[in-house]
Structures are given as C-alpha cells and as structure tokens.
C-alpha cells in the first residue's frame, strides 16, 4: 500500500511546477510614450512624453492633450524624459501611444478567454516557458492595499512587483543611450522585484532557484520585445542586403580573374569579367598589376578572401597582407561607430574591456578564420587542410589572463610559429580545437558541411568568380547542406541568438530586475528535506509507544476520562523526551546554522506537534477493540501524510486526489509551520508575519486535536465498557445479565426510553468480571471458519513464550 501510493503520488510532479500561485503586483502608472526606431541606421528614438519642464504627463489624458503639452510646433521638438526629439507633427501623431508595463507583460501571457472579466479577477496563464513547463495560476493585483497585504506574503509563492515609475525609468535608461540631446533630469531608480521562497516547500524553492524562468521568459522577454519587436528578422534583412552590397564587385573596365589558388594552374581557366556587371569573387593575389597588361587583374581588396596563399598566411603580417573584404571588415571594427553604440547600450568601457582584447586578437588572426571560411565555401574539408598559418599574439595582454597562463601560451605559440613542423594548420590542430569547443559550448565544428558556392557558368574550371545571382543560389545550397531552409533562415537563427544574448546583457547592465529568494540562506538540502524526515520520525516515534505501552486499566474503579487522560499524559511525557532528544541531535548535525531563535522555535514547535501526534494516534488506538486494526489505521493515516502532506512536493503539483486529501493531512500544516520557522524566523528573527502564520497553522492542528480527542474519548468509553461489562453494546450486556439471572442489575441497567435505552452511568464503576466473561462467551469478538473448526489440530508448539500473544489472537475466538 505504501509503495504503490507513494509511487502514484510522486509520479511526475515537476511538470506541475507551473501550478504554483503567482502574482504580478503593479504599482506603476500609465504614461504616454513616443517610439520611432530606424534599425538600418541603428537609430532608436524613444521617450516618455513630458511638458516643457520635463514633468511627466498624466497617462490618462487624451492623445491630443498629450501632444499639445509635449510638442513644440514652432521648433518641431518633442519633449520627453530622454531629452528633446526632433520630429514632425505627423511623426509624433503616428508614433505615440499609452504605455503601462503590465500591458506588455500581459501580451506575453496567453490571451484571455473572456475579455469581459477584469484583469484583477482573471486567472492568467503563460505559454510554455520550457518543455512541459508553464505558469497556469497567475493573478494580477493593482490595488495598493492588496499589494501591501500580499507582497512577500504567504498566499502567492512567486511574486513580481513592478515599482511605481518603472516604465518611465526603463524607457529613460534605453532612450538616453541614443539621444544626444539629453537635457532631461535623471529619474530615481525603479525596479521589477521578483520574489519566491523556500518556506512553502523546500524542493519547490529549490526548483525555482535553479530555473527562475519568470525572469527571462515572462517579464523581461515581454519588455525586450516592446523595445524592439522583430529585431532578429529585421537585422537579418539588413545583414543580407549589406552582405551582398559589400561582396558585390562592379568593375569599371573589363578585368581578369585568375583561377582560385587552391586548385592549381589550369589551362584556359582565367575569366574576363565585363565592365558594369555584378560579380562575387573569391580571392586574388595581393600584387600590383603590371603596366604592360592590357586587361588588369582584379585586386585582392575586391575579393572576399583576398590573398590566401601559404606564403602570405604563414608570415607574421598575414592579416594585413591578405587584404580581402572579410579581413578588412574585421579591421574596420576597431573604429566602428556601430561597435561603440553597442558598447554604450551594454554599458561597456571598451578601453578597459576584455571585449576589445578579443576584437584585437581576432583582427590580428583574421587570416585564419578567413581561410576556414574559404574552405567551407569551396567544398574543402577544413580538417584535411594542411596549409600553414601564423598565429599572432601581439595583443594577448588585453585579454586579462593570468600572467603565468599568458607566458605559457606565448612560449608555446612562439615555438609553433618558429617551426615548420609544428606551425599551425587545420589538419593538425582543428580536431583538438573542435573537441574543446564541443566540450565547453556543445558546438561541434565537424557538423559544419562544406559546399562549393563559386560554381559558375562563366567558366566551370575557374571556381573563383560567379555572378551575384549564381552566388545567391549557391549560398542557399550551403545553408540547406547545414540544416537550414535557406540563407535567410540561417541569418534569422544566428541573429536571434545574438540578440537574445545582447538583450539579456543589456538588462543585466541596467540592473532593473531584482531577484530575492527567501530562505536561500538555509536552502541546504539536509535542512530542507530534513524537515520531512523529522516529522516522519516524530510520528513514528510516537506510534512506537503503542507497542511499548498498553491500553489496560490498572485501577478497579476509574472513570473513562481519567483513564484516557492518564494514558495520553504518559505518551506525551515520553514524547517530550523524544522531541527534546531530537532537537539536540539536530543541533549536533548542523541544524544550528538556522540560528538560536529558530532552533528554540523548532523545539517548541516539535513539542506542540508531538502533542498533536499523541492525540491523533491515541484517538485511533482506542477506536477499535482489536488494537491491531487501530494500528493499521494509524499506518494508513501516516501513508496519507507522507504521500500528500507537502513533504516532498506541494500537493498542487501532484494528482488532484492527493491535493484534495492534503487538507486532512496533519503533515501539511506541521511542515508549513516548520518551514516558516526555518526560512522565516531563521533569516529574519522573530517577526509578526511568521508568528501569525505559525499560530494559524497551530490553530488548524488544534482542530485536528479536538477531532481525534473526541474520537479517542468515544473509543475509550467503548473500551471501558468492554472491560467492565464484556461489550459496549447494551443488548449484549442484557443477554449476559439474563443468562446469569442478574435481575436486580438488569432492572437498574435497562430503561423504557426509546433512545438512550441503557443506564450505563447508574451502574457501579466496578468491573463486573463474571458478567464480562459471560457476555464474551455469548458474543465472541472473532469468529472462525467452519472448515477451520473441523480441521484436525495436532497441537500448537511455540518456539518462544513471546509468540503466545499472536498465537492466542490467531487461534482463539476471543481477544
């Protein structure tokens, strides 16, 4: 029963993590925003409308009023919290809108099924954030009073509070990066605060600490998309257009293109390209044309890869001498305005950043990457390319490496560069580089498939020059060979990952999303899961007393209440010793880390819990005449508590059945109280919030106590009657009195009432031994099968006297 129940209870609860109650608490105000982005020029114009003195406008005024207050028609200037923006009246009218952070977060959630329901009354859900994981119980709160009540409270396990002025602050941070006319005063910092806790359930808190999907997938992504929706595909189109614009060569006169250098000399392989036509050229020797030549040779700077001969790539100045479009573009990054703009967005100081070191290192060795791309785009397997290349480490000091590591790398590369045998080449070193990349990033260079993209009808032997149209078709084939639909699909994927990285870096730099995980200080597995084992241990320890103590009366005249209370006190006094010993043991095993205040609270809570367990087990123990049945009930109740009492996972993460029965599991409230002590008092000391919550859980447990005490007293009354009269059923007692001829006692015991027919209380408190024996003879508690009665019995031979109790239970008709 225990195995199957727990197997079902804990089948796959993690997929229901998203059922946790989530609250988005919005203190922010609605504002009017102007946004007009020119991606191609990397020009972002965004700002919250203000008056001429940079005071924020009421977000609920009309659009016309907002424009009238913020736009200077004569100067053609719009006043915003990111400074003044030059714009025409039409541009302003077409690009302003009301903005509230909640609206863009809501846009990232699943659409409401009933739009007539107010946001505050609707239960929102999110799309799938990762495989089988989505928040399905999201509440929106905008009331100041309710926000104050619920923030970091006990009702919602994950909370996101949008502070007042957050939208204005966020837009100012982004907008001022691009606006050079920034005269607006800086706004005080405002954040989104994400909060969750280990307190409700340790494993739940552990999972949220590991994932915290809400930050990246729900809130931040919604804001990022608002600031620049469809940016990846937009950039892909720009890159695609500029890529072909930069690669395309249009000769003013007819020019000569020699065969691609990696394919040797082939007769009649030169191609004459015509003036004013559009071509893409692979490579060319970086040499000055002879004055005597009628048709000039294409210069290397007009080709993609430039001069890729080994006599160039194996020298120290290879990156400069290659002189192709690719290497020259990398070199131009050093003074690129776009790079400076991106660095500004990310708040990176290029003069002190490792990023500049990596750019310099890439520039110094651009000929190596240039040769790799040459191989891929010419259908050559780079892993078989043995062409020698120089490694340049002139700017290694810019990478911020440890001095010993830097010296070791420099010494090793110096040996490589000085030796023909060990000089860098793809065939020797690329397998190791690929292996390291695969281990560190999961990216395997061997998965990149090479494909010839310079095939041309101009001259099939040349493999060096092609028309733009042919090159475009061939690039699509290269994309298909590597698992993409076409080259645009490849660019979209690449840009999406790049933009995601940049966007998250941007938000990390702005530091506008704060994450607080309450209880993280004590979020140790031994403490968290230890709560569950402690409570199981205390329950089982209390239960074991029923195997040591008995239910027997040892005083002839004793009322039911006194008899029951005396047994209860005996068990509770033992329980006090157990709980105290357990607390001392916990202190010695590292639990003292939660602090003395929390440790004292744990001890007091365990004493209270032990009392509840004593009353629970005592109530069930006295419920049936056969104590074995009672003990089985205790075990069943223990299984219910283990399977649905919030010990491993919150019950809402389990099947619905276990969630429903969790409300009758004492462990639910015991663990809630204990969690509040460990992760509340343990971190914050004694405080009113946790104290009130612990008292609330204690109050619920007292309801259980009243129920089980009532049950126990009823059971004790019946057991006491069985001791005194042989049965708790009046009609059985009457049968015994009649059988023994006890006329006086019969008249005293029996009444003429329709209900409450028997005068139990009028009888003496004495034990009627002879009557009890007769009643048990007339009405045996246990029966036997007829076949068993008729069976020949050769005797019963116990191995030890301790077996006699069970033998008596199995063979006798009385217990």
TrEMBL record:
Coarse class of the protein's main subcellular location: membrane
Transmembrane spans: 524-548, 569-594, 600-624, 631-649, 694-714
UniProt membrane topology term: Multi-pass membrane protein
Localization, UniProt: Membrane
Entry keyword Transmembrane helix: yes
GO cellular component terms attached to this protein's record: membrane
Keywords: Membrane, Transmembrane, Transmembrane helix
Entry annotated with the keyword Hydrolase: no
Protein name: Phage infection protein
């Amino acid at each position: 029963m225990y195995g199957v129940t727990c197997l079902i209870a804990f089948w796959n609860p993690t997929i229901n993590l998203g059922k946790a109650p989530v609250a988005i608490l919005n203190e922010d105000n609605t504002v009017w925003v102007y946004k007009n982005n020119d991606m191609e020029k990397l020009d972002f114009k965004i700002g919250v409308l203000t008056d001429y003195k940079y005071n924020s406008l009421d977000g609920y005024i009309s659009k016309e009023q907002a424009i009238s207050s913020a736009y200077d028609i004569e100067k053609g200037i719009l006043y915003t919290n990111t400074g003044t923006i030059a714009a025409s009246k039409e541009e302003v009218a077409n690009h302003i809108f009301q903005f509230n952070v909640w609206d863009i977060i809501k846009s990232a959630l699943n659409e409401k099924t009933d739009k007539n329901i107010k946001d505050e009354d609707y239960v929102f859900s999110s799309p799938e954030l990762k495989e089988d994981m989505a928040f399905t119980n999201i509440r929106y709160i905008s009331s100041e009073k309710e926000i104050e009540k619920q923030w970091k409270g006990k009702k919602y396990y994950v909370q996101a509070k949008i502070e007042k002025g957050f939208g204005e602050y966020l837009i100012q941070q982004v907008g001022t990066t691009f606006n050079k006319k920034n005269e607006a005063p800086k706004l005080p910092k405002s954040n989104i605060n994400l909060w969750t806790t280990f307190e409700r359930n340790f494993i739940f808190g552990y999972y949220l600490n590991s994932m915290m999907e809400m930050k990246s997938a729900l809130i931040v992504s919604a804001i990022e998309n608002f600031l620049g929706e469809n940016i990846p595909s937009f950039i892909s189109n720009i890159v695609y257009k500029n890529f072909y614009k930069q690669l395309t060569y249009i000769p003013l006169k007819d020019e000569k293109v020699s065969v691609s250098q990696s394919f040797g000399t082939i007769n009649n392989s030169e191609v004459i390209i015509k003036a004013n036509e559009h071509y893409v050229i692979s490579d060319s020797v970086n040499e000055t044309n002879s004055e005597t030549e009628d048709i000039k040779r294409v210069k290397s700077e007009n080709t993609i890869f430039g001069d890729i001969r080994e006599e160039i790539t194996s020298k120290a100045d290879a990156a400069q001498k290659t002189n192709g479009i690719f290497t020259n573009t990398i070199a131009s990054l050093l003074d690129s305005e776009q790079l400076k703009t991106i660095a500004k967005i990310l708040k990176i100081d290029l003069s002190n950043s490792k990023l500049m070191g990596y750019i310099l290192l890439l520039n110094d060795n651009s000929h190596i990457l240039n040769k790799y791309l040459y191989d891929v785009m010419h259908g050559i397997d780079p892993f078989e390319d043995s062409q020698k290349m120089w490694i340049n480490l002139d700017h290694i000091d810019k990478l911020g490496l440890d001095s010993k590591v830097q010296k070791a790398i420099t010494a090793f590369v110096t040996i490589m560069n000085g030796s023909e045998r060990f000089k860098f080449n793809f065939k020797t070193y690329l397998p190791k580089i690929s292996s390291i990349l695969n281990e560190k990033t999961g990216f395997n260079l061997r998965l990149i498939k090479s494909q010839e993209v310079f095939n041309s009808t101009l001259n099939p032997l040349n493999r060096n020059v092609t028309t733009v149209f042919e090159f475009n078709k061939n690039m699509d084939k290269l994309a298909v060979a590597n698992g993409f639909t076409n080259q645009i699909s490849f660019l979209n994927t690449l840009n999406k990952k790049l933009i995601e990285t940049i966007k998250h870096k941007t938000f990390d730099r702005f530091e506008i999303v704060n994450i607080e995980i309450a209880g993280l200080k004590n979020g140790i597995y031994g403490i968290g899961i230890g709560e569950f084992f402690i409570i199981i241990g205390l329950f089982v320890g209390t239960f074991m007393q029923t195997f040591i103590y008995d239910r027997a009366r040892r005083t002839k005249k004793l009322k039911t209440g006194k008899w029951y209370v005396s047994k209860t006190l005996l068990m509770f006094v033992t329980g006090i010793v157990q709980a105290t010993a357990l607390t001392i043991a916990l202190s010695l095993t590292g639990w003292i880390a939660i602090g003395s205040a929390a440790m004292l609270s744990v001890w007091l809570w365990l004493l209270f819990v032990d009392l509840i367990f004593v009353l629970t087990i005592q109530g069930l123990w006295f419920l049936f005449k056969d104590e074995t049945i009672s003990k089985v009930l205790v075990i069943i109740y223990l299984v219910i508590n283990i399977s649905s009492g919030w010990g491993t996972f919150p019950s809402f993460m389990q099947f619905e059945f276990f969630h429903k029965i969790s409300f009758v599991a004492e462990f639910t409230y015991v663990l809630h109280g204990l969690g509040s002590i460990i992760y509340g008092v343990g971190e914050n000391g004694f405080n009113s919030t946790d104290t009130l919550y612990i008292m609330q859980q204690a109050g619920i447990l007292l309801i259980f106590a009243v129920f089980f005490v009532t049950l126990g007293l009823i059971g004790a009354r019946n057991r006491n009657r069985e001791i005194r009269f042989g049965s708790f059923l009046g009609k059985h007692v009457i049968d015994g009195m009649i059988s023994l001829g006890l006329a006086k006692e019969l008249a005293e015991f029996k009444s003429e009432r329709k209900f409450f027919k028997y005068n139990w209380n009028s009888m003496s408190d004495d034990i009627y031994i002879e009557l009890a024996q007769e009643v048990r003879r007339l009405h045996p508690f246990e029966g036997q099968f007829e076949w068993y009665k008729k069976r020949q019995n050769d005797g019963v031979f116990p191995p030890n006297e301790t077996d006699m109790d069970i033998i008596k239970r199995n063979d006798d008709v009385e217990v």
